[in-house]
Design a protein that fits this description.
Layout: H1 2-19, E1 26-28, E2 35-40, E3 43-46, H2 54-57, H3 62-66, H4 68-73, E4 82-86, H5 92-100, E5 105-110, H6 113-124, E6 131-135, E7 148-154, H7 163-173, E8 174-186, E9 199-200, H8 202-211, E10 215-220, E11 227-233
The structure holds S-adenosylmethionine.
S-adenosylmethionine binds near residues 89 and 160.
Length: about 240
């Protein structure tokens, strides 16, 4: 009996793995280095960077290597903006943006309690009184509907294990006309010194953002040394 059933279950698994989730864009695939063995719209999702990588995010040479100062300037934040830093990590961008929105807030959203702990420590030490840590889930940013003017995702979106659900959740929490800015290492450029699955092409980002309703606004692939800065928006209410 066993020998008859085993091939059946193996076949059933293959059918399930290949097609059961194809409708929503997900597929289970052979896991590659630093991937999770699941693809979304043809892109293998990268594994999440552990909180142990926080010192790399805060490395002193980062500003010069990635021109993070320029990146923030390109966001054109207004003092009253409500900003969400999705996949905020150690808060590198959240605290810098907080200074630029003195009459607004920065919601620092992450799934790792340890990363949020680093942010909470900085707040407890008197930094960023308008930075609010948010413990999100893999399926939702856990932000209120129609409240955010600008969402920033630096080096984070490619590791969301449920990008479609997160996309829908981010869309809901943006105000109509609000912007979502994806900053991703350029996969088109082999000289960018980052692991393959932690890079994205512009074409792939556009595909995935369009799938949840965002409109493409602009792509800047030359201002930053290694990254695309891609701006999308939630259409204004008609
Ligand atoms: C490589 S770090 C980048 C951190 C920060 N954006 C920066 O550039 O300094 C990616 C972060 O995204 C977070 N992350 C992964 N999946 C997430 C999800 N579904 N929702 C929110 N954060 C997520 C990880 O926990 C990690 O802190």
């Amino acid at each position: 009996m066993r020998s008859v059933l085993c091939p059946f279950f193996a076949l059933a698994f293959l059918v399930f793995a290949g097609t059961a989730t194809a409708q929503d864009g997900y597929k289970y695939i052979a896991q590659s280095f630093d991937g999770i063995g699941k693809s979304y719209m043809g892109r293998e999702i990268a594994s999440v960077m552990s909180h142990q990588g926080a010192p790399w995010l805060e490395r002193p040479q980062r500003e010069q290597q990635e021109r993070t100062d320029k990146l923030i300037e390109l966001l054109n934040l207004k003092p009253t903006d409500y900003v969400a830093d999705i996949g905020a990590g150690s808060g590198y961008f959240a605290f810098r943006m907080g200074k630029l929105v003195p009459k607004g807030f920065v919601f620092a959203v992450d799934i790792q309690a340890e990363m949020l702990g680093l942010i909470e420590d900085r707040i407890a030490n008197g930094e960023g009184d308008n930075v609010i840590p948010v413990h999100s889930s893999t399926a939702s940013p856990k932000l209120k509907e129609n409240t955010i003017d600008l969402m920033l995702l630096v080096d984070a979106y490619h590791e969301f294990s449920l990008p479609r659900e997160m996309g829908i959740g981010m869309y809901r929490s943006l105000k109509p006309g609000g912007r979502i800015v994806l900053v991703e290492y350029r996969a088109e450029d082999p000289s960018v010194p980052i692991k393959t699955l932690h890079k994205m092409t512009e074409a792939q980002a556009k595909l995935e953002m369009a799938a949840v309703g965002f409109e493409w606004v602009s792509t800047d692939s030359t201002s930053l040394p290694w990254q695309h800065l891609m701006i999308f928006r939630k259409p204004s209410a008609k």
